[in-house]
UniProtKB/TrEMBL annotation:
Gene Ontology MF terms: ATP binding; GTP binding
UniProt keyword Calcium present: no
Annotated residues for binding of GTP: D59, I60, R61, S62
Binding site for ATP: G8, M9, S10, G11, A12, G13, K14, S15
Ranges for domain RapZ-like N-terminal: 1-156
Domain of life (superkingdom): Bacteria
The protein's name in its UniProt record: UPF0042 nucleotide-binding protein
Keywords annotated in UniProt: ATP-binding, GTP-binding, Nucleotide-binding
Record-linked Pfam families: PapZ_C (PF22740), RapZ-like_N (PF03668)
Length: 292
C-alpha cells in the first residue's frame, strides 16, 4: 500500500498533482474532512479494499480542524497506517501573480490582501512541510516539468532530494533575472559572436559549444563553480531552502552563457536533486532583428 498525503500552498498545483497521480493509478480523494482521515485509512488498509495506491489532498481548506491533523497522523502511525507527505511550495511573488491572474481570492485573505493570506497559510502549514517526505517547488515549473518530477517519485521511484536547481542563462543587455539566487558573469570568456560562421548559431549548437569550451578559462571556471555549488547546496538545504536558481550571464544570452549553462547542467546531473536548464534570451537577438 502506498498512501500519499498531497498538501502545500494554495495555488502551488495540488489539484494538478492529484490528477497526475490519478492518471498513474492512484485512488484520489481531495479535501476529505480531517475527522474522517483515520476512518478512511482503516478502510484503505483493509485487505478487501483492493486498493494499493491512494492519494489524499489536505490543505488550508480544512479550516480550524487542520490544527488537529498532527495528532491524527501520530495516531495513524501507531495503528500501522504508514503514509508519505508530498508538499508543494511556491514563492510568495508567484502565488500572488497566480491568484491575480485567475481572479480568485486566497482562502485566508477574505477581503484583505492576498499576500497577507499567503503568509498566514505558510505559518499554518509549516508543521506539514517539516514532516514532508517530498517537497517540490513549483515556482518555475511548467505542468509538463511537474509531471516529470511526479513520475520520478511515484513511477520510477528514484531517490528525491527535496531540492530543485534551475540553471538559467541570460543576456545582461536584457537585464538580470529577478529570481536568481546566484549570478555569474561569463563575459570574460572568448566570444563566438565575432566569428561570422558562429555568430548566427547558439550555445546549443555543437560548434559554438566547442568554441567556448576549448578555452582553459571555461574549464577552470566550471571546476570552481561546481566545487562551490557542491559546498553551498547542502548548507542551503540545512537552512530550509528547497530551490536554487543559478544565473549564467553573457552579453546577449545566446552563446557563452548558454554553453556554460549546458556544461554546468551536465556536471550537476550526477547529484540527486531536481535539475533543469532554461535559456531565457537565446532567441531575443533574432526577434529584435525581425522587429527592426
Amino acid at each position: 500500500m502506498r498512501f500519499v498525503i498531497v498538501t502545500g500552498m494554495s495555488g502551488a498545483g495540488k489539484s494538478s498533482v492529484l490528477k497526475m497521480l490519478e492518471d498513474i493509478g492512484f485512488f484520489c480523494v481531495d479535501n476529505l474532512p480531517i475527522q474522517l482521515i483515520l476512518k478512511f485509512a482503516q478502510l484503505a488498509y483493509d485487505q478487501s479494499s483492493q486498493l494499493d495506491k491512494i492519494a489524499l489532498g489536505i490543505d488550508i481548506r480544512s479550516g480550524q480542524a487542520l490544527e488537529g491533523l498532527n495528532e491524527i497522523l501520530v495516531e495513524a502511525i501507531s495503528k500501522g497506517y504508514s503514509y508519505e507527505i508530498l508538499y508543494l511550495d511556491t514563492v510568495n511573488e508567484v502565488l500572488v501573480k497566480r491568484f491575480k491572474e485567475t481572479r480568485r481570492n486566497h482562502p485566508l485573505s477574505g477581503n484583505g490582501r492576498v499576500d497577507a493570506g499567503i503568509e498566514l497559510e505558510r505559518e499554518k502549514l509549516e508543521f506539514l512541510k517539516k514532516q514532508a517526505d517530498f517537497i517540490i517547488d513549483t515556482s518555475q515549473l511548467l505542468i509538463r516539468e511537474l509531471k516529470i518530477e511526479i513520475n520520478k517519485i511515484f513511477v520510477q521511484e528514484q531517490e528525491y532530494g527535496n531540492f530543485y536547481i534551475t540553471i538559467l542563462s541570460f543576456g545582461f543587455k536584457y537585464g538580470i533575472p529577478t529570481d536568481c539566487d546566484l549570478v555569474f558573469d561569463v563575459r570574460f570568456l572568448p566570444n563566438p559572436y565575432y566569428d561570422q560562421e558562429l555568430k548566427p548559431q547558439t550555445g546549443n549548437d555543437k560548434p559554438v559549444y566547442e568554441y567556448v569550451m576549448s578555452s582553459q578559462k571555461s574549464t577552470e571556471f566550471l571546476d570552481k563553480l561546481e566545487d562551490m555549488l557542491e559546498f553551498l547546496i547542502p548548507n542551503y538545504i540545512e537552512e530550509g531552502k528547497n530551490q536554487l536558481v543559478v544565473g549564467i550571464g553573457c552579453t546577449g544570452g545566446k552563446h557563452r552563457s548558454v554553453s556554460i549553462a549546458n556544461a554546468l547542467s551536465d556536471r550537476l546531473s550526477k547529484l540527486e536533486y531536481g535539475l533543469k536548464v532554461e535559456h531565457r534570451d537565446i532567441k531575443k537577438d533574432a526577434l529584435q532583428k525581425k522587429l527592426v
